[in-house]
Amino acid sequence: MFKNRITELFGIQYPIIQAGMIWCSGWQLAAAVSQAGGLGIIGAGSMYPEILRENIRKCKAATDRPFGVNVPLLYPNIEEHMNIIREERVPVVFTSAGNPKTWTTFLKEGGAKVVHVIANTKFARKCEEAGVDALVAEGFEAGGHNGREETTTLVLIPMIRKATALPLIAAGGIADGEGMMACFALGAEGVQMGTRFVASVESSGHAAFKQALIHSSEGDTKLMLKQLTPVRLLRNRFSEAVEAAETRGATAEELKELLGRARAKKGMFEGDMEEGELEIGQVAAAVRSIQPAGDIVRQVWEEFRQAQRRIAAMEV
Predict the structure, then answer these.
(1) Which of 140, 149, 43 has the alpha carbon at shortest distance from 96?
(2) What average pLDDT score do residues 33-58 get?
(3) Which of 19, 114, 118, 178 is 20 to 30 A from 97, comparing alpha carbons?
């Protein structure tokens, strides 16, 4: 039986966390990951408050194991989301894209474990001051919204490990047990995977989005929209339009107009592979199959254990 600070903090079997991705992380995916021994996360960033409540209740009905909710703190209905999370007694809350001091005490007073997503050492210290229970250190390779510093995961993890004693979860560019082992060697105690779980049967992402993911190649993703909120996108007609606009020096207002409304829903959820916003990680080029989420958890864990044995066999 594997135990470390992450498994004990969340009450899970494996230190494998499924990221709370907008449009892809509904209750079916969260429940499947939790049922397999990891920590499933409902992505609240694309949900109206009552849809979030419905997903929480369905997840509770589908699994008796711990699960969580991810809440981007820039979300406009944030107070309603937080009140629902507390009313429904969600055991774990991952917060991102904002100041951890704003909601951590409120959530912890409601009985939740609180984890904040960061991309630099400055915010690691702020999280410690805010009283969070653990950190996700997310490298430049990650999909979705990203850090402005463009620090890669293998550089970021040891820097964060030196900056804080909090339990540490690595994210960005991880899709297998070997990547997990590398992050553990650098000081992580768990991994969060997004892109790998987008390519799962239970993911609520559109089938066309999943197919685009598993057929992508190296260099098909790029970090864009840094004047707004940095986001890593899969190459398509929309991303090329963004790149052209940024190259000619478009203002933030011009980029906002180009982005428009519901662009991410159009791509990831509705399946418009040319005009939709397709948020995905750099590791998409290494993902080649769509599998049940439980199989992904078990496969990554077995790969991790095999990597451990290979390293141990090298010892003199």
Answers:
(1) 43
(2) 97
(3) 178
| Phi/psi of residue 171, nearest 5 degrees | -145, 150
Measured between alpha carbons, how far is 156 from 171 in angstroms, rounded to an integer?
A: 10
Write the CA distances from 222 to 140, 151, 156, 230, 279, integer angstroms: 10, 14, 19, 10, 10
Residue 192, CA atoms < 13 Å, CB-side half-sphere = 32
| CA proximity to 97, closest of 123, 74, 124, 130 | 74
Q: Give me the count of residues in the chain.
A: 316
Residue 266 belongs to domain spanning: 207-283
d(CA 181, CA 179): 5
Pair (65, 146) in one structural domain: yes
End-to-end CA distance of the chain: 26
pLDDT at 145: 78
Give the span between the Cα atoms of 277 and 275, in whole angstroms. 7
Beta bridge partners of 115: 94, 134
Residue 99 has a CB neighbour count (10 Å cut-off) of: 14
Report how far residue 133's alpha carbon sits from residue 118's, in angstroms, rounded to the nearest whole number: 13
Q: What is the pTM of this model?
A: 0.95
What CATH number did the domain enclosing 137 receive?
3.20.20.70
Number of domains in the chain: 2
Q: Which of 288, 270, 267 shows the shortest CA–CA distance to 196?
A: 288
pLDDT tens digits, one per residue of 142-159: 998 778 889 999 999 999
Residues 86 and 131 occupy one common structural domain? yes
In degrees, rounded to 5, the angle at the alpha carbon of residue 97 between the alpha carbons of residues 6 and 140 is: 75
Q: How far apart are CA 307 and CA 137, in angstroms?
A: 22
Would you state the pLDDT for residue 316?
Answer: 55
What's residue 103's pLDDT? 95
